[in-house]
Every structure is written in C-alpha cells, then in structure tokens.
C-alpha cells in the first residue's frame, strides 16, 4: 500500500546524507525526550523516516507529499527544520508553538559582517524572514520559551544555518 509508511521505507533506502543530517537532528533534540512530535514543513519526510523507536511522529507540509497531517493539539516537540524563514505570516504557527513543550528549529542566520543582498540565503519571494540570533530567541521568549541549545551541529557544509532548541518556561535566575 502506498502510504506514509511505504514512503518512509523508500526514503531510508536512498540517501546517506539525509540519514546523517537526521541522526544529528535527533541527537540535537534528545533532551526533550519527546514521545509526540510534529515535523512541520516535513518535506519528503526524512525526519520521520529516521525517528527513534517509541516516538510518534506527525508530519505536515504544504507540498503534496505523503504525510500524516497535524493530529494533535499538544506535542512534546514541534520541529521547524529549514521552515520558518519560508512562512510569510509567522502568527499562523504561533498556536502550534504555544501548545508544545519543546520547539526545535533550524534557520539561516545572517552574520553582521555580510550584506543582505549578497548573502547566499537572500532569496526574495522564497525567504520572507531574515533572522539574527537575538531576534529569533526573543520571538520565542515572547511566547514563553527559553533557549536550551544554540549551535550549528549540521555544519559544515550548511553555512550560516543555526539550530535552536527551546523549552517552555521562564529562565531560572
């Protein structure tokens, strides 16, 4: 039967790079100990295809790809891998974020030393947002999250792509 599980098995056969990146991503979010996960903007579904046993992964994308859809109101973890810069109205995902315990994201972060219009991630019409670390972190703080991890674990060769892991709750002082 041609469904999400069939497609997931097909994906596992054909990309060593995707396997490597998604193993890094699963390691990045292991502190969340998530049992329910939403991969928002799942693309063809690599993150689900390489998920650990015991996690229930929902997938959603605007593309016409096999996906489960958003089946819950609350998730332990919502992931936005290379997605948020493509969403014109970020208010449209705030409900998903606010109903999650943890949020993971990768986004291009423009270095201060680079001119926006010559930067490799400047893509008008495709990228609607050009984030800086402090602005991105502040946006999550306004929704009640604190930054747990910041880094570039998928790099190289993904130049200027930063990874973030946020957890619901105030920063402890």
Give the CATH superfamily. Answer: Vaccinia Virus protein VP39
Number of helices: 5
Order of helices and strands: HHEHEEHEHEE
Alpha-beta classification: alpha/beta
N- and C-termini, Cα separation = 53 Å
CATH topology: Rossmann fold
- Shape category: globular
User: Percentage of helical residues?
Assistant: 25-40%
Please count the beta strands (DSSP E, at least 2 residues each): 6
Major β-sheet profile: 6 strands, mixed
Low-confidence stretches: none
How many domains in all?
A: 1
- Strand arrangement, major sheet: 2-1-3-4-6-5
Using the 3D structure, state the CATH architecture.
Answer: 3-Layer(aba) Sandwich
* Average residue pLDDT: 90
The radius of gyration is 16 Å
What is the class in the CATH system?
Alpha Beta
β-strand percent reads 15-25%
Describe the structure.
With 173 residues, the protein is of the alpha/beta class. The protein has one domain (4-168): Rossmann fold (3-Layer(aba) Sandwich). It has five helices and six strands, in the order ααβαββαβαββ. Strands 2-1-3-4-6-5 form a six-stranded mixed β-sheet. The radius of gyration is 16 Å and the shape is globular. The mean pLDDT is 90.
